[in-house]
Amino acid sequence: MRRAFPVLCVLACISVAQAQTPDEIVAQAPKSDWQDIPPSDLLVMRLSGHRQVVIQLAPDFAPEHVRNIVRLAQAKWWDDGAIVRVQDNYVVQWAGRAPHPSLPSQASAHLPAEYEHPAAKTPLTPLPFTDSYAPIVGFSAGWPVGGDGQHIWLTHCYGMVGVGRDMPPDTGDGTELYTVIGEAPRQLDRNIALVGRVLDGIDALTALPRGKGEMGFYREAAERLPIAQVRRAADLPVSEQPHWQFLRTDSASFARYWQTRANRRDRFFVRPANGVALCNVPVPTRPVSLENRTPR
Questions:
Q1: I need a labelling partner for 60 at 20 to 30 A (CA). Which of 122, 128, 152, 264 fits?
Q2: Which residues pair with residue 138 across a beta bridge?
Q3: 221 and 251, same domain (yes or no)
Q4: Which pairing describes strands 42-47 and 51-57: parallel, antiparallel, or unpaired?
Q5: What residues are paired with 139 via a beta bridge?
Q6: In what order do the strands lie in the sheet with 143-147?
Q7: 275 in Cβ contact with 262 (< 8 Å)
């Protein structure tokens, strides 16, 4: 009996020592578990000071809003615009130059309320944990979603990009966009059109001074960070196009990844949580060179 405890301790220590971290699982994911993001779904925002933000658009969830955003980018709507709002633990918001020009002829001022999506159109990889905002949560085609069995919808996790709007029935036209920079404001789910997420450069936004005006808006034009240009990646020269992938959320690697985030057993952790919130499972993404994109 005296030997049992040391033996069990050794086995437990070996188990803990060998447990992988989420980052290790992602690093070891085979190439086949990664999916390329087409340049047509990437938006490149270049800020003053040579800072760049890359955004992945979500046309399957908000096709009309995304179509408008692409048309606005092609019409150079945001060129010489600015970051106009930075609200602590909430959002960063940007807009075109002031006074705002009229919408380009190919863009629409009135769009449908693209706040939810028929569940039957897209498969769902669910998380088996209770959520405060939706009966079902999980991942659909690489995106964090909530659901109720009939519909699914994108969720306001960190880095998600949404469309600024006025009071209902206004749904926003895509001319003013924001990204989440704090605790997930999930109460906004199904109330605003979410159109994408920031893949790269969010540090350039989160580090900005907070606005002192109402709701974090800058009071003075001089406080605003200028936007040099916003372009769809597919409209840039090939040499300037960024290339990104996301870890497929229906892959075995992603299943191991979220399970490990819910039950951390690597050496730092004393007790695994046995649960995880949707927005605490960020879908892994990575930049890739053109020659290393996944063949299909």
A1: 128
A2: 126, 145
A3: no
A4: antiparallel
A5: 125, 144
A6: 117-118, 151-154, 143-147, 136-140, 125-126
A7: yes
Asked whether residue 143 is domain-assigned, the answer is: no
Residue 154 sits at φ, ψ, to 5 deg, of -65, 150
Residues across the chain: 296
Domain shared by 50 and 63, yes or no = yes
Instruction: Indicate if 26 and 77 belong to the same structural domain.
Output: no
Question: Which residue segment(s) compose the domain that 194 sits in?
Answer: 40-101+156-236
DSSP-derived 3-state class of residue 29? coil
**Is 172 found in the same domain as 191?**
yes
Q: What 8-state DSSP symbol labels residue 92?
A: E
* Distance, C-alpha 191 to centroid of its chain: 17
Structural domain contains residue 296: no
Q: Would you list the DSSP string of 157-173?
A: -TTEEEE---STT----
Q: Are residues 225 and 175 in the same domain?
A: yes
Q: At 144, phi and psi to the nearest 5?
A: -75, 130
Q: Would you give per-residue pLDDT tens digits along the chain (296 residues)?
A: 344 433 333 333 334 446 899 999 999 999 999 999 999 999 999 999 999 999 999 999 999 999 999 999 999 999 999 999 999 999 999 999 877 778 888 899 999 999 999 988 778 999 999 999 999 999 999 999 999 999 999 999 999 999 999 999 999 999 999 999 999 999 999 999 999 999 999 999 999 999 999 999 999 999 999 999 999 999 999 999 999 999 999 999 999 999 999 999 999 999 999 999 999 999 999 999 876 665 44
Q: What is the pTM of this model?
A: 0.91
Question: Looking at the structure, do residues 183 and 59 belong to the same domain, yes or no?
Answer: yes
